[in-house]
Amino acid sequence: MSQDEHRAQRREAPEPEEGARGVPKLVIVWIVCLIVWGVGYYAWQIGKPMLGGDSRSVPVVAETGADAGGGPDGGAIYSANCSACHQATGMGIPGAFPPLAGSEWLLADPAIAVSIVHDGLQGAIEVAGTSYAGVMPNFSATLSNEEIAAVLSHVRSEWGNDGSAVEPALVDEHVERFGERGPWSEEELVETFGKP
Ligand code: HEC
User: What is the whole-number distance in angstroms between the Cα of residue 21 and the centre of ligand 1?
Assistant: First the structure.
């Protein structure tokens, strides 16, 4: 008899006290804190410019220029517009496309490279000891002045090249001086800027 009684007791479920136990005060305080912080942060951000991941302000980006990562990406512009001919290695294709790596035309007065990219180049030209006679298209319609400066800053400092960065202002000056004109030739470049 007592055996059966124990078994019956053991089958009993515990008292349903769980539902009656409130949420601990500490947790409520914590949740309130989070809500206050969230709403406060949202309110604090109202009216501030949305910068995404780049928390540098606009004037800082403008000051540091294209090569510091703020303006157009010279490397990406090169891949999209130049590498088909001059190749990702900057070595060009012997006999067809001249190299940019170690090119005297690219590394001399940056006004020369600005002229070539803005207006195009055709006719015979000697680059790094080899003659080429091809046609390079102009980029005045495809790339903005800022983008031309960015891609030139990129190629002048890639593949061991040690040219200085090119400021967009130099491209602006080029347009002021020459306007929209046809492609350059080697002789015209030498006449205008001197032999590199
Ligand atoms: C369609 C092919 C083609 C594309 C695209 C092209 N180039 Fe050229 N580039 C040439 C050719 C061809 C020459 C040589 C022209 C000649 O023989 O008169 C040249 C010459 C040059 C030169 C002077 C010579 C040298 O090797 O330094 C520079 C600088 C240059 N290109 C830079 C660029 C840049 C920067 C871009 C991209 C914005 C670009 N090119 C896009 C074909 C191209």
Answer: 78
